[in-house]
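Quality-control log, excerpt.
Job 1 of 2 completed; input and output follow.
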Amino acid sequence: MPFVIHQNPNSILCAWCPMQTTLLFQKGDAASKLAVSDLNSPAVYIYDVSTGSEEPIATLTTLHTSPVVVMKFNAAVDTVISSDTKGFIEYWSSDDYKHPSGAVKFTMKLDTDLYVLAKAKTAARSLEVSKDGSQFAVFAADGRVRVWRFASGKLRRSYDESLEAAHDLQKSGAEQFVLEDIDFGRRYALDKEIRAAGDRVPASNAVFDESGNFILVPTLLGIKVINLTTSAVSRMIGKPENTERFLRIALWQGLPKKVRSSIFFPCSPLHISN
């Protein structure tokens, strides 16, 4: 059965089933490359979408030993971070698809914490990179959010957002996190259904703020805003919204551009410009 990948204004027809995609270019780059992983093999295919060709310009078959479940382009250092179903995390250059030796401070992965997911026998469900490229966060299938420093590959923080941790937090009596028993029971049951559904439900993500000092995590209680320096929960967003379960976050912190507009009054010749 053929599958179609749409990348406006082009589309790519492939005979295999796509799993994850990530764009490998920034504004001003000559080539517009797209990386696509295969649902049923470890292969990652690279396409130049600017040409409209359905033939990949490169096929990466030795990066991983199992299908790649998450990929994210770290534009600050022209490097892709990818992770497979076995929990192995890899870095590779978007130019030559090799180890990005100039972008990292290690030569051997044994000197890093990039094996943490594999050791925990879990896999990434989502991956996000901080704006400056110095950190990345993984929300894993075991309910934990882990934050790495990119250059060293060392784990910076780990936050347990599993159902067991939520249950313990409810029993702790901490006012900031405790819900009414009926409300907690309903949310707990809903989260059990979400976890049981697996890939049929959109995977939760954890996103950095513009400064990289805070991370926003959707949880059973609401959206936690966590200070990465102190690990304290600085704010809880949406805790009273007991009819909603926030799963994914998109954060924009820029300033809107001032647009000149004109106001016309149809019954008057007056024309006012702002």
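Job 2 of 2 completed; input and output follow.
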Amino acid sequence: MPIAEVRKPYDAKIPGFPPLEAFKFLDAERYIEIHKPLSSKGDTVSVQTRHVNVLNKRLGSLVETETLVKEILPNENEENDSSVIARILTSCFIKGLTGFESVGKPTGILGVKVPTPDRQPDKEITQATLSVQPALYRQGSRDFNPLHIDPSIAQEAGLSEPIMHGLCTMGFAARHCLLAYPDLAIEKIKSMRVRFAAPVLPGETLKTKIWRDDDKKDHYNLLLKMKAGQW
């Protein structure tokens, strides 16, 4: 497994922000909104990302970005809304980067708290992760942040050992929805929002509690709470 990039800094690409080492970037929240399926014909797509909100915090900064994945259609303006495949909102906490004026506007989606229903969950799913989960995930996702595989980097970040990628655990959450509700085909999922509240260690067992909300006429919402270990 290539780990030669362990000391390569990740460039935040925000005007006025210095390059920072990868372990200082922590996924805080992610929202994915599916507009239409990704074509299987090998069509060309574009990925456009912009920073929409940068918040100065006491121990670091919270950077919110919006990414549009678009299909490049023949003879059509790329700005056409019909070309949008997915919209992705990301909230990333950057440790130690503080002391500046906050700029931008909140998305209205990220950071919004959702209360846990005052009743027993409708479904529960338990699944063990692999001790090599981060090594496998980094190859498929191309997320080579050394925080997830290098013990020395993890310790420098204040962790006892490397932790799993947040998006990897998000994938487990989506899988648990499909396992809990067999009638829920993957193409029926319209959006998904996850807040990463605590790290998951490779090899830990994930337990997901699921509440189903059928109040909507044309769709239903699933609220999930996932924890590692005993719950």
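Post-run check on job 2. The first helix runs from residue 133 to 141.
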